[in-house]
Write a structure and sequence with these properties.
The complex is a heterodimer of chains A (764) and B (166). Chain A is α+β, with helices and mostly antiparallel strands and 764 residues long. In chain A, strands 3-7-1-15-12-13-14 form a seven-stranded mixed sheet. In chain A, strand 30 and strand 31 form a beta hairpin. Chain A folds into three domains: 194 residues, Aldehyde oxidase/xanthine dehydrogenase, molybdopterin binding domain (Aldehyde Oxidoreductase, domain 4), CATH 3.30.365; 198 residues, Aldehyde Oxidoreductase, domain 4 (2-Layer Sandwich); 156 residues, Aldehyde Oxidoreductase, domain 4 (2-Layer Sandwich). Chain B folds into two domains: 76 residues, Ubiquitin-like (UB roll) (Roll), CATH 3.10.20; 69 residues, Orthogonal Bundle (DNA polymerase, domain 1). The radius of gyration of chain B is 17 Å and the shape is globular. With 166 residues, chain B is α+β, with helices and mostly antiparallel strands. Chain B has a five-stranded mixed sheet with strand order 2-1-5-3-4, sandwiched between helices. Chain B has five helices and five strands; from the N terminus they run ββαβββαααα. Classes of the chains: A alpha+beta (764), B alpha+beta (166). Chains A and B meet through helix 1, helix 3 and helix 14 of A and helix 1, helix 2, helix 3, helix 4 and helix 5 of B.
Chain lengths: 764, 166
Amino acid sequence: MTVHDMKHAASDSARLEAVGGRLSRVDGPAKITGAAHYAVEQQLEGLTHAVLVGATIAAGKVTAIDTRAAETAPGVLAVLTPDTITELKGASDWFGNPPGVQTYCPLVREVTFSGQHVAAVVAETFEQAVAAAALVKVWYDETPAIVDLSDGKAGDGIPIDAMTKEWGDAQAAFAEAPARICTAYNTPREFQAAMEPHGLIARWQGDELTIWEPSQWLDGMARTYAEWFSVPFENVRLVSPYIGGGFGSKALALAHSAVAAAAAKMLDRPVKLVLNRPQNFTSYGGRAATRQTVAIGADREGRIQSIVHRGVNETAVDGMWVEPLGSVTSIMYATPNFSSKQNVVRVNTVVPGAKRAPGENPSAFGIESAIDELAYELGLDPLEMRLINYAEQDPHAKKPWSTRQLREAFAAGADAFGWAKRSPQPRSMRDGHQLIGWGVAAGTYPVRRAHGEAVVKILADGSVEVESSSIDMGQGTYTILAQTAAETLGVPVEQVSVKLGDSHFARAGVTGGSRLAGVMTGAVYKAAGQALDELIGLALSDPRSPFQKLQANTLQVRDGRIASPRGEGPELSIAELMSALGRDHIEAKGDTLPANTTPEERYKNYTTIAMSIPHTEGDWSRHSWCAHFVEVRVDEDFGTVRVSRVVSALDSGRLYNPKLAESQWKGGIIMGIGQALLEEGIVDRRHGRIVNGNFADYMLPTNADIPDIQTISVGIPDPHSSALGGKGVGELAIVGIAPAIANAVFHATGKRVRDLPITLEKLI
Amino acid sequence: MNDQVTISPTTLSVHLTLNGRDHSLDIEPRVTLLDALRDRLHLTGTKKGCDQGQCGACTVHVDGERVLACLTLAAQVEGRSITTIEGLADEDGTLNVVQAAFLEQDAFQCGYCTPGQIMSAVACIREGHAGSDEEIREYMAGNLCRCGAYPHIVAAVRQAAQELRS
């Protein structure tokens, strides 16, 4: 893979519209005027409304459901139960593995978690469906539930051998190390809590299914629907023009999706089903609760001799989720001896899922807290400690980093923050009643890569259309793809319109793992290049072209006008040239797949994650990096913690649009502040139920919780990570924020909190 | 879970001024202003984030004051004047100064909380609560943003307030 030398290098002086320019969001005007219609806001004739009934127990059997009162309520069209809902086929998993079951029923008789869907009511209006759902009576035979990791019945869990990473003799080296720490770190169940609830509209027309649903993966979800209903993949159209936040939660078709699509089929009418806010805490998985122990042995100078790491995450009784807890532990610092192992423990929860930086986020909380503890143990500055153990290559893969601007991040962040003025002793900085603490931590996220495709059309009027079934949930896909096409074709960005979020467009893999920008800019660059080649080829060779007589080797397009690079001959707008050529459009489909890819492989590439390219493929280990510097103020009497300042220096390689990248970084930092201080799913131990499943009790950061945040880009183009030199942006910045805050709280108070969130009762 | 719940088929006729135009609606008394806007009047710019008065995504103006449309029954706005995000820009499409500031400052990402943020911001400035960054943060704290656009929202409100003062 090579970095293509674009006309306009990424810099602050780059033109707004070029790749690397600070163009405002092209989808912004629609979003600020209310004109952006999100998936479930489509207005359809004959639309019906479905409301789910959830289990009130966490484990046991549904023994009876009385639907009579609901069925006779005004406006009710159907009450669906496990006995009456149409039978679906099992669907393969996201790796493409065939289903373990022949049939699938999204309404359950065997309950494995509280809130699991047991029935659904469909009515003419939303209000009628809500009222009738309250009339459905369900009887259960309740059995004891395993409520969480600390439940006595939970046990040690299942070893996940694929997570084991070992080199050297970690146990022996730890035992012999002159300086040692061994500590345990816990993170609670956390939720993505996107502002737009999950939901969908399903409509059947014959055996063709259209689904309007917020989606991070149209093609993957379309495959699931196709398999559930035994219809060809092409018969399913997923539409998701705007997504009101996903953070990992909106990549899969889920049980409620199946209920709505089944109801639409049964009634032969379109059905809208939107999870209410409490149901958004139980109908799909948030981040699994985790437990880690980190043992580090070092010599007296602070050089790490050994790291021994053990992790556990919760998973569901009937589903598997592995939150890779050794992912940062194994690469952040150089160590000659290392051991990491992980178990998963089944509890009665909905199967946990991906939340921003799954794995890296809790992993960094462990290792970045532990390294801080070791620094204090040895009397070293926490920043110096990190530099002493700087990993010059990937300690696990034993490969050089593609790029690692982490040293530069530490330097730039420390300088902007004023780290040199830090007083090293805990409780040594204060402002009246407020104890002040300064903390540092690093973060990283792998460059997940995949193949992509895009269609670029040059139209008769000189405008350009880009089409892809990838999506924009706020990362800025619409904008950076417009910039990529504009720059590659040499047209003003206003002439480019980007169409996303329809599975009938060129296919796209999952938008997750911070891979979309790298994959899709590469695909659009390729497709736009092909379209430009075709345009220039026609201009040079078509007898109708005014350039044909020029006998030139090539032409160039600038600001939407085409001419010889030497300035001889005519200069035409693209529209004038298209008119001369008698063409109404030129279309190119570009993809980054290997040339000999079969149709089956292509399908697999876009509808599963089985063909993702490992970040350590070939000669390099590819990651984004960051260093966070945080100031906290802790009220000495009340133990309340306020984050008062954040400076983060980040290496995401080349930024396709710094304005939007900075927004994503800050968003990650803010979600990290929530994780550190506020967010925790609380389970009622009697009934295994999430009791704070709403926005008042599951506390998200508010505007008043967030200080000024300074982000500094220290990245350089990474030729090994993507076609245009970028690395991942969206997930990076949350990694390391929670430990930076915990480290700052220790510096402020002398108390080490190893259980997130850091709430006041843990400090007083 | 009450078998005795009876569901009245009664509908009310509600008259309101919406974004400067008169409307009348025949609706059940239990319909919220939010659902009336989104499902009956097809104005989906006002967002449903929680339906419990906890997130602010459904903020609209009733007689110029910010109100949560999910906690307001449509029947309560009889004779009142409602402004939603769709009614904020001028007829010719010229953006409200707050809208323009949100775009310039990149004060949103996914855009779902954005209409509520903007409606709150317009009222926040009008209420005289945009005097400092601290004050903006406090008076905009009822509008959650999970993408974490808060610092840019503060910058946008500050910018719009300054432009409106000058």
